[in-house]
Structure formats: C-alpha cells, structure tokens
Amino acid sequence: MTDERRREQLYIFISRLKAEPPTTAIAPDELARQHHAYLHELQRARVLVGSGPARDESGARHGGGVIIIRAASLADAQAIAEREPYCREGQRAVEIIAWQRTWWDD
Questions:
Q1: Residues 16 and 87 sit within 8 Å (Cβ to Cβ)
Q2: What is the DSSP letter of 24?
Q3: How far apart are CA 38 and CA 85, in angstroms?
Q4: Termini Cα distance of the chain
Q5: Which domains, ranges and CATH numbers included, belong to the chain?
C-alpha cells in the first residue's frame, strides 16, 4: 500500500422526520415523487454521491435518510439540502456534516 492518500470534500446530509411537521398542501405520494426527482436531478448534475433511507439490517426504518453530496462549501450544501422537497416543506429536520472521503491507491 502506498502512503499517498486521495481526498474528496463531501457533505453528509442527514434528514430526520419531525415529530410534529407542519401541514403541507402537497399529497404524500407527490412529495415522494418530488423527492425522487430531486435526487435524480442531483445525480445528473454529479452532485449526488449516494443516498438511502435510514434502515437497520432487518429493514426497519429509523426515520429520515442520508444523502451524500458534493458541494463547494458548507453553505452550498445547506442550500442544496433546503431545496430537497421534504426539507423544503418542513417535514424533515436537516443536519449537514462536512466529511472528507479518503482512500489510498495501491
């Protein structure tokens, strides 16, 4: 193994279900459709690294999900997160964590 590390600055966007989300005029199935369309948009723009619901090994949901994105800054990552439909509609709380993906080339 070489000592030469490679790094990429990424941001982990954690969305958690709110205990008492505000009422929204958007139907749940439409909100889900908008959420998936937004993820596809991020993928096409090469912003999305990965995403998925928070589930354990039995498949049980633990509320919300995780999205890993590329952004120029923490502020840009926050803006991307705030446009995600569930977050935009106040259905989920957002936490952004700066993360450096690190790997070594053999």
A1: no
A2: -
A3: 8
A4: 5
A5: 5-93 (3.30.70.1060)
How many residues does the structure list for the chain? 106
Overall pTM surpassing 0.90 (yes/no): no
Give 64: exposed, middle or buried? Use CB within 10 Å, 0-12, 13-18, 19+.
buried
pLDDT of residue 18: 92
pLDDT in tens, 10-62: 999 999 999 999 999 999 999 999 999 999 999 999 999 999 998 999 998 88
Question: Is the separation of the CB atoms in 55 and 62 below 8 Å?
Answer: yes
Place of tokens 């106040």: 90
CA dihedral 98, 96, 78, 86 (to 10 degrees): 150
Kindly report each contact of residues 30-37 with a partner whose C-beta sits within 8 Å and lies 24 or more positions away, as own/partner.
31/85, 31/86, 31/89, 31/91, 34/85, 35/84, 35/85, 35/86
Burial 75-92 (b: 16+ CB within 10 A, else e): eebeebbeebbbbbbebb
